[in-house]
Amino acid sequence: MINIKEKFIMLKAEIIKQRKNYQNSLSNIMSLIVWPIIIFFQTFYTYNSFDLSFLRKFGIENQTDLLTFLITGTLVYNCFWSMVQSAFLLTFERQNGTLEAVFITPTSLTNFLLGRALGGILTNIGMFLSFITILFVIVGSISVELIFSCLLSLIVIIISSTIWGAFINSLFLTSRDSNYLFTICDEPMRILSGTSIPVSAFPVIWRTVSFVFPSTYCLYMVRGIFFKEHVSLDIWIGFIIILLCLVIITTIISNEAYRRNKVTGKLFIY
């Protein structure tokens, strides 16, 4: 039986592996930093093409509020997007013939997948701090309480996006032809979680679907800090329930993927 220390060592090893293999390349910088910034400016100037007064019913009173809304959306989405990208890199594990490492690792599959996810999220911490600094300048005020709230939101984002990343990674273990999951897991999350469109602007059915994504709850919390709005207890309860469900589903899917590969796969053919 593997003890907690050994699990931590294996978790750390997978984080280091992800950073060295995938997180230091120019393509990674483009996809995780340059591309989100381009999308941010595109969205901002699209909004500026119209009368912003209609946004007041969503709590966006002026351009400063709009900038805050879009920057927080880009910030949180980028963290969760890196999780989807981390899962997509399992495709290269298949191509390189190294996917067997996932199934023969002496730690639990869930622990392994969490390590893969964390390897992706740590790349975004620098960007998170940069965006938070910009938000401080836009808001025009800084306090110990605000800094503490931002650090708390960082912890919440890291935990939730890591769990989301492990879940997405487990989905990519289930099939050789899983590239379609890349689109399914990314675009609905970007649109429905309120990255650039207020969740309250959606019809009720889509608003309900949006609360399946943990990024929706994270955005409520982060925006609550900068818009000085109280985050209701229902949001926190729903957030915790979603994370627990994702952990359970991830464990079930990864165990099923392991069982199927023992029957239908070979260590050198994926």
What does this structure look like?
The protein is mainly alpha-helical. The protein has one domain (4-264). The protein is 74% helix and 0% strand. The chain has helices at 4-21, 26-47, 63-88, 90-96, 100-104, 109-121, 125-139, 144-172, 180-192, 204-210, 214-226, 233-264. It is globular, with a radius of gyration of 19 Å.
What is the compact description of this entry?
The protein has 270 residues and is mostly helical. It contains twelve helices and no strands.
Helical/strand content category? mainly alpha
What is the general shape? globular
Helix content: over 70%
Number of strands: 0
The domain tally reads 1
Range of strand content: under 5%
Return the string of H and E elements: HHHHHHHHHHHH
Output the number of helix runs: 12
- The average pLDDT score comes to 77
Stretches with pLDDT under 50, minimum 5 residues: none
Largest sheet: none
**How far apart are the termini?**
28 Å
Rg, rounded, reads 19 Å
